[in-house]
Amino acid sequence: MRETYHIEIIGPEDAPVQRASIRSTGLDAARERALRLFRRARVPQRSGPSAEAVRIVDGAGTEVFRWSVWDEGTGPGRGGR
């Protein structure tokens, strides 16, 4: 069954700088997409506020994954919820 996930790229002071909604069969696919968007948002050429974190919210409004620049050394499976 497909579920809707909302991905938010978070800038300074927890302000969202980019949002995307995707439909996926599971959280793993949504997490891969979120991390890809986060890496793209952190490239030096990008203008605007710097990306500090990414989070995924499920269709019910519950945060199911969060990853920040401070989690970079721990691997994506360990820093999320």
From TrEMBL:
**Highest taxon of the source?**
Bacteria
Name recorded for this polypeptide: Uncharacterized protein
Whose protein is this, by species?
Methylobacterium aquaticum
